[in-house]
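DM from R.C. (forwarded with permission)

"hey, sorry to bug you on a friday — could you get me a structure for this? deadline for the figure draft is monday and I only need the backbone to look sensible"
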Amino acid sequence: MDPNPFFNGPAVHSHQNCSYCHKFQRCEFEKLRACAACGNAVYCSKECQRSHWPQHKIDCNTAKAQDKHIKEHTGIEHGYTDLLRWIEYYSTPMKNCMIAALNLPNYPHQERDSVLTIQITHKRDATLPVEHRFIIDSIARNNRNDNGHNSKHIIQMLDSEDIKKAVEFGKLEMGKFYYGTAMIMIFAFFSETPYIVIPIKKVFAIQKPTAQMKVTQTPWWIPLRNIMENGKKMRFCCGKLEGGSCCCGGWVHSEDVKKGNVFA
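My reply, with the result:
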């Protein structure tokens, strides 16, 4: 069984792949290169990057506009790009923390009414690696009937057309194994005056076997805070082979993991 500090089952995860041809990085033993403008899309070749531009240009231009807005009002360089890269870095532990927060064996389909909310603040220090550029202010599970300054926004997100589309996509993607779709909201604080807070929504589908897994630590948010405060990455492996290589590149099967070290 994969090491997982959140629940007693394999870690929910995805593999980085080319934004155009969807070739996995591990297939070709070649590092994917990020878009220099926004850092959000990654490509295995210049040809794929050029081919993907008609689809990517909206997101890319949005990132550049947000970076410019944040810099003009705060002096922070590439603040929005920092946020996108920070989210990508911690994508796997955030998803697994959400599974633990939902506690689905005891509260079936709580994903329909709950959101994992993470509030962070930019440190304004460009010398730090991206995984250390934000302070972790709070990690919480919010329900649609909670009272709070984000409650109205959360209800709107839970009932949005985007979520409905994500649910349908999850059913199509997972077929009979589909259980539900979970949502994570990241609120990134950049400035008090003017008030600049950027919300980012992430959704992912949950498989039925994952919904049966039991939480291994309480409070459920402690592993995520430890990971983020120490700039760690979760070790995980689905056991699948691509191009003759295990999906984790062998790092999950090292002596460190056998001794209980589940982070990189």
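R.C.: lifesaver. Strands lie at 33-34, 42-43, 114-122, 134-143, 178-191, 196-207, 241-242, 245-246.
me: no worries. Residues 241 and 247 are 6 Å apart (CA to CA).
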